[in-house]
Amino acid sequence: MIVGGALGEIMPWRSVFLVLVVLPLVSGSSALYASLLGIAALPGLFTMGTLSDRLLRRGIGRKVVFASGILCMAILTALMG
After folding, report:
1. Is this prediction's pTM over 0.85?
2. Cα–Cα distance between 71 and 54 in angstroms, integer?
């Protein structure tokens, strides 16, 4: 494992900590997170479909709606870090 900077020199045990403590916590809950995201996707799909239909009636194409949705997701992902 490549460790750089002062953090790697101060905490050489961090990889052991991650494997022994963090990995069991995350691996057990990944299925829960995936199912929650799947449930949360249903209202989002309905909302975006309705919005896309209304904008199409006003003359704004679906490609524009799709591209702006992807742009919003990219901006929110960048803001979250």
Report:
1. no
2. 20
